[in-house]
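step=encode ok
step=design start
structure_in=
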């Protein structure tokens, strides 16, 4: 990993520098700040729940004196979460959780317009990526927000010097929760982490509606492909897979689902999808989308039987679901960039396989990620969970915890109110009935 001194913007700022007086940062171009602010404001219009929380935080200042380090996709939506935390008094430092998901204008605006320390550049190499995580941890955070568990992992392996000061944190994505549960089972996790990903207002909406729409949006932007009449293979039928499969079906595609879990496979079959192993689906598919959180889901033996022009896209957090090494070994030419975010691999028999976004998270690397209206709930969960950790959650022991149900319901209530939706309330007799075991038939 590179030394932070290799990144010039991380050096102390002399007074004659144009960015003197700004928080420490490493972003691509501060001149993009005005454009970034405009886009952040646009996202804010579709995030009324988080906006209400930000306004309350600004009045109550629940995070006064608190340092928060966040490793997240640097997008207009996450920028509004950072604004909410900062409005509550927190000293916030943000770094990117994926080298290709950073929106450079958003990163610039966070620094120049909102005064938030930000370390993120689109397309940064691996060393720079981890240097940015190190820069975020240099803030000696009390709380951490993670998306994929890289920041928490570095805390427990290479930056144990600041580990003792971390009180708790939140994890945003399925892959990160899987890693955290493994750490907890091994007795390695040193502080409490809340699985924000697993709350209903996150995984039922973000994963299903957000991933479903944004993944197909990315495929359209990268390839301009018509899905109607084509066969789409969706690997994994969790909430993300459900969203992708249902939206592909709605666009006229024939959808095949692959699974390792018999219950999820049964669920997919009952939803009307064909279910089969990837080995059987590989010769049939025109578009392959992985959303499993596991590695080598599409691999050498599958590439060997795919159709000419098959499209390979991954919407899992890490670039390991498609075996890119094996694909490169099978190719007889250096991959050619044929469209933005689309690389063509030519095999020995002349077949061409198209890999999108270098196998990384396609909806953020080739598009803009989830719509702001969806992230409104996910980031409202994050903000309120952080507040809860700083108050009622202070006595938690190391481990992985669920978001309190009251927070989940509060976010759902605020969301439906902003949508103009009304619901019933229980009558006193109904409350008494639900609270009693004495009523018979």
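sequence_out=
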């Amino acid at each position: 990993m590179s030394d932070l001194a290799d990144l010039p913007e991380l050096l102390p700022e002399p007074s004659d520098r144009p960015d003197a007086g700004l928080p420490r940062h490493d972003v691509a171009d501060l001149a993009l700040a005005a454009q970034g602010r405009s886009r952040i404001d646009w996202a804010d219009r579709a995030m009324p729940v988080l906006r209400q929380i930000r306004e309350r935080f600004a009045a109550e200042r629940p995070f006064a004196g608190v340092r928060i380090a966040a490793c997240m996709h640097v997008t207009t939506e996450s920028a509004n979460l950072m604004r909410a935390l900062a409005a509550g008094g927190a000293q916030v430092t943000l770094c990117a959780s994926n080298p290709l998901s950073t929106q450079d204008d958003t990163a610039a605006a966070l620094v120049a317009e909102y005064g938030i320390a930000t370390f993120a550049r689109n397309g940064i190499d691996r060393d720079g990526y981890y240097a940015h995580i190190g820069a975020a941890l240099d803030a000696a955070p009390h709380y951490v927000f993670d998306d994929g568990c890289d920041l928490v992992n570095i805390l427990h392996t290479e930056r144990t010097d600041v580990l003792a000061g971390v009180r708790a944190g939140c994890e945003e994505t399925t892959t990160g929760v899987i890693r955290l549960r493994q750490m907890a089972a091994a007795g390695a996790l040193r502080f409490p982490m809340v699985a924000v990903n697993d709350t209903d207002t996150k995984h039922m909406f973000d994963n299903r509606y957000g991933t479903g729409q944004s993944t197909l949006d990315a495929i359209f932007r990268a390839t301009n492909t018509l899905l109607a009449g084509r066969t789409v293979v969706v690997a994994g039928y969790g909430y993300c897979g459900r969203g992708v499969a249902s939206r592909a079906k709605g666009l006229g595609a024939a959808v095949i689902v692959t699974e390792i879990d018999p219950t999820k496979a049964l669920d997919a079959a009952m939803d009307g999808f064909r279910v089969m192993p990837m080995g059987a689906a590989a010769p049939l598919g025109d578009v392959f989308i992985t959303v499993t959180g596991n590695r080598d889901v599409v691999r050498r033996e599958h590439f060997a039987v795919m159709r000419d022009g098959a499209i390979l896209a991954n919407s899992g957090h890490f670039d390991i679901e498609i075996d890119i090494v094996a694909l490169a070994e099978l190719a007889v030419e250096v991959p050619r960039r044929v469209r933005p975010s689309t690389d063509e691999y030519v095999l020995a028999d002349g077949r061409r396989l198209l890999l999108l976004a270098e196998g990384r998270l396609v909806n953020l690397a080739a598009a803009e990620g989830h719509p702001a209206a969806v992230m409104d709930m996910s980031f409202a969960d994050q903000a309120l969970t952080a507040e809860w950790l700083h108050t009622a959650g202070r006595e938690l022991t190391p481990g992985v915890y669920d978001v309190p149900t009251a927070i989940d319901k509060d976010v759902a209530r605020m969301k439906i109110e902003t949508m103009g939706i009304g619901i019933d309330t229980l009558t006193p007799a109904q409350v008494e009935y639900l609270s009693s075991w004495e009523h018979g038939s």
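step=design ok
step=annotate ok -> The chain has two domains: 4-202+369-418, 209-365.
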